[in-house]
Design goal:
4 strands; single chain; 182 residues; 7 helices; alpha/beta; four-stranded mixed beta sheet
Length: 182
Amino acid sequence: MKIKSRYAKTKIVKFFINSSFFRNSIYALLLIITVVWQNYNKEGYYHWFINNLIETNFNFIYVHDNNLTFDQKNEIKHGRTYFFLNLVKQSTPEDAVILFPEAHVFRDPSNQVEFNNLMNRKGYVTYFLYPRQIVYESEKDKTKMYKKITHVAIVNNWGYDKLRYDIAEKIPYSVLPINKQN
């Protein structure tokens, strides 16, 4: 195909320059150059992320210390969040409906325990506590399960006011039945 006019040639060149394929190709090329440069730059973030953070954690958890139990590996991976969720799991029956506080309680800087940001995601918490059911305080008016609560997760002393009995010695992190058991 022979293009006869100079105007037609300019139009074809503008089409390729303005096309999204051309732009995306340039972005991909820049991304590849950045990743390659970061890989060879020993002080770069990518080098630290791959060679220090991921490789060191992987070696520690899976290669060098195969004597770790499943619980120990999860506590390394999820921190004190796993420890607390495991406490809730061991302290409640399988048919329990557990009340959890709102997200701001977990993120409170005065907490003695640092929870990860996933504690306010129902799917994450349910993954560890299944078959127990989770209800957040923020769901109070949205779900009928709120009326079926059997236990309250005590986080940074939140939740004692939800219990139907008084507690003499209040500890900051626990899980207690909503009704006093004899």
